[in-house]
Write a structure and sequence with these properties.
Layout: E1 49-54, H1 64-71, H2 79-90, H3 98-115, E2 122-126, H4 133-142, E3 147-152, H5 159-176, E4 183-186, H6 194-213, E5 221-228, H7 232-236, H8 253-269, H9 272-276, E6 281-286, H10 301-306, E7 315-319, H11 328-345, E8 348-351, H12 359-374
Length: 415
């Protein structure tokens, strides 16, 4: 067994109970603007700091197995099986790029906040590696900041990309013993904010221009919008269930619906003909894990590419639509495995950039913060699809994970 990194600490345990709920409120540990559980916060809030929430990743070979133990916490997976996944990280020296990317994003957000005259310190914490969310919360309170707005580095609705971050917040409040002393709201899912969509549209336009300049016809190119696969059961329960004024989303839930809507919005930005009669495109999935008997969203990007030569395609543009930065799933599953597949099939392949610290993306995230500072009405919040703006307070039953059962969570109404 590899030695653990000096100073390693396991992630905090799962919360055993929801934090206190104020009189007349239904959302635990919330500000006055959200505690009653309305879908949108339309009152100004004087937040004192931002919690930047990340997934976390190892920063050396000795960190890889402890990190994967954190990711799979409670599932009883032996280290021998974890090592089968570890080779992705070991290929890159045991270092995930995600932590440095979040440090860079934090600095970019701080500069944008300062340029707008907003005095809001940012505290960064991760789900699965140090600094943990509890570390960020401790640091904020040590600085005297107790009314906080959480911003997760994840744009779409699902258990792992939204609900679990809300559970992380509840875990952190209990681990720090700060129940009843802090107020924490969360920025809603931002999949269709123009600042998130713009970098993808720009990257796709550049890639298509390159292929056309190299002599590829539009009927020889296919655009693959790629995102992380999740179990069908989790996808179907992503977003709020039918009821509570919502009709539900059907197969694939909000997770698939949001990705399809953003893909269409990107193509519309390139011109209406691009969407209606232009280059073929499809939503594909990657990074599947878990037992083979559990069905996950398909088609896998490699399987989808295998079908393209017979359809007359000679080139693909891979748009990493589900990812905010070039972390491990992008570097390994797209830049390594998918590119190898494309080469084997004789396909020219271009992978477009993720938002990273693109100026539009950074500015868009600060726009989202300002919406909550000002209590901007939902109809006045610019969004690129008809699905948005997404909820400031997650709805009852949103992104349920029946395998794990509901855990205490913040920033949501009811269970």
């Amino acid at each position: 067994m590899a030695a653990q990194n000096i100073g390693f600490r396991p992630k905090p345990p799962r919360a055993s109970a929801v934090p206190p709920v104020a009189d007349g409120c239904v959302v635990p540990a919330a500000t006055a603007a959200t505690c009653a559980g309305a879908p949108f916060a339309t009152e100004p809030v004087a937040y004192e700091g931002i919690l930047l929430l990340g997934f976390g990743g190892p920063e050396g070979q000795d960190d890889v197995i402890p990190f994967l133990r954190n990711v799979t916490n409670g599932r009883g997976i032996p280290d021998e099986r974890l090592e089968e996944v570890a080779h992705h990280y070991r290929h890159f020296g045991g270092v995930s790029p995600i932590n440095d990317q979040n440090r860079t994003l934090k600095a970019a957000l701080e500069a944008e906040l300062a340029a707008r005259g907003l005095d809001l310190p940012i505290y960064w914490g991760n789900r699965n590696w140090m600094p943990y969310v509890s570390d960020a919360l401790d640091a904020a309170v040590a600085d005297g900041n107790r009314r906080l707005l959480a911003l997760a580095t994840s744009a779409y609705s699902s258990y792992s990309s939204c609900r679990q971050y809300r559970e992380d917040l509840a875990d952190a409040v209990e681990a720090t013993g700060l129940g009843g002393e802090v107020e924490i709201d969360k920025v809603g899912q931002f999949f269709d904010h123009p600042g998130f969509v713009a970098p993808f549209a720009e990257g796709l336009a550049d890639a298509l221009a390159t292929l056309r300049a190299d002599g590829f016809g539009d009927d020889e190119i296919e655009v693959l919008f790629s995102t992380h696969s999740i179990p069908y059961a989790d996808a179907d329960r992503s977003g709020p269930p039918a009821g509570d004024g919502h009709e539900g989303f059907g197969p694939g839930g909000a997770y698939v619906a949001q990705h399809v809507a953003v893909a269409e919005a990107i193509l519309q930005q390139l011109g209406t003909a691009q969407l209606e009669t232009g280059i073929p495109w499809q939503l594909v999935f990657q990074s599947r894990s878990g037992p083979p008997q559990v069905p996950w969203l398909e088609p896998d990007i490699n399987d989808a590419m295998a079908e393209l030569p017979a359809a007359g395609r000679r080139a693909v543009v891979i748009v990493p639509l589900g990812f905010v930065s070039d972390h491990m799933e992008v570097l390994w599953d797209l830049d390594t495995e998918a590119m190898e597949t494309a080469e084997e099939l004789g396909l020219r392949a271009i992978r477009t950039p993720t938002p990273g610290v693109h100026p539009s993306y950074v500015a868009g995230l600060v726009d989202l913060v300002e919406e909550r500072l000002a209590g901007t009405a939902p109809e006045d919040r610019p969004r690129a699809t008809d699905l948005g703006p997404w909820y400031d307070v997650c709805r009852p039953g949103c992104c349920e994970n029946k395998r794990l059962g509901f855990q205490p969570a913040l920033a949501g109404a009811g269970r």
